[in-house]
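Here we describe the complex-level prediction in full. Unlike the single-chain runs in Section 2.1, the two entities below were treated as one system.
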Amino acid sequence: MSCNEALLTIENGAVRYQKAESYALDHVTLTFQRGEFVCILGKTGAGKSTFIRTLNGLQALTEGDITYNGRSYQTLDREGLRRQRQKMGMIFQHHQLIPRLTVLQNVYTGLFGSRSTIRNIAGLFNESERQLARDVVEQVELLPHLNKRVDLLSGGQRQRVGIARALAQSPDVFLGDEPVASLDPGTANRIFQLIHRLHEERNLLTVINVHDVKLAKRYASRIVALKDGRVVFDDQPEALTEAIEDMLYES
Amino acid sequence: MAWFKWKHLILFLLVVALMVWSINVTEFDIRKFSQFNNMIDFLSNWFPFNTSVLPTMLKASLVTLGMAFLGSFVGLLVALPVSLLAAKNTAGPFYGSVRIGLSFVRSIPEIVLGLMFLTIVGPGPFAATIAIIVHNASVLSKLIAELIEAADKGPQEAMKAVGARPLIGALFSVFPQIWPNVLSHYFYRFEVAIRTSLMLGLVGGGGIGQQLFVHFKTFQYSTVAVDVMLIMIIVIVVDFLGSRVRQYVM
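The structure predicted for the assembly as a whole is:
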């Protein structure tokens, strides 16, 4: 179902943190289409996290530009950028859920971007929003824990809540910043499987940082590898040879 | 000398010198307790308790409780929004001026605030309550602002990522996290407000504090005994309730 039109483009994107001598992200140009499942590889400090965070504007580019759905981030003010983010669901390594709130309440926060401040504060959700929240909790198989506080869940279950929150945004894009790095291998695989299934069902663009090469090879339709902030590999998983892997992770 | 350095010895000597100086200026002298009999004489005047005043004093202690509750609770209501303007990560451009304003208000002793409001609205619990509100609003604003600054940044970033407006993001990512600590601070301030309202009673702020002061000055020690007992009961009850609520909220 993929169409050839670019959904998300980063052009000559560079990030240089204050007082840093080198670029964290060094003039990267990439084009992503709907339906692609992209895994970003690279060792710690290669710029993976910085890269993912630039895609939804959590991290501003110091040079270059990003275009999403035909709109350039350079032309957007803070409010415009906020609207762009509404359709980009993000999953974090440490899930970043709101403690002391329940599974359902956390999923509701995924709807915040598209609703009025008053309705958000009052916690007023209409029938279709309530249904949507239940549906996404069901899709991540947490319906039995719907009204349980998230701090009482296991690591894998919390990450599922994180995914459900992103799903509640009805996203076109899934962004993942090392979403399975803190999980055991079995749980990590199941979470990846879940993300991949949802990706297929909804025909999303998915861009995920991962440090487990095996997981990337199993699920990705395209692998991009970063080294010292630069793109050093961009191809199908089959093209990733052992020699390239060694080059990526050598110190 | 594995655990200590010469620097520590100097520090130790400094602390000893400070203690000697403080003993001097406070006329601190254990030998003065040789007249302990006076104390026993004094306390024996407290018995038997003058229970005939119990209904009136009970009423007065309820006034004190009301002052402390209203003073600290309205203080909390004011502090919740103000604290967002006093925390580095949510205040934006207001941070500096709000912080300076708060420390200015906090530096005014409650008794001075009480005396000020007494001259404006006349003696009685109303003036005392206003003084407690003003003081607690500034203290709680600062304490809550510090909780906001120390709150986990992760959920705040997540709220940004879902496209929530900054106010909503701050409210939802910060307050659920810090809520138990906010309540903990609040109950402590409630307890302190009871003591403050007693002090304000001395300058005409009403309640059991004023009664205590009057009874003391007129040597009605058996009534003083009733006042003190009631005060102790209030403090213990509020402390107990506070710890129960905190347990429930955790």
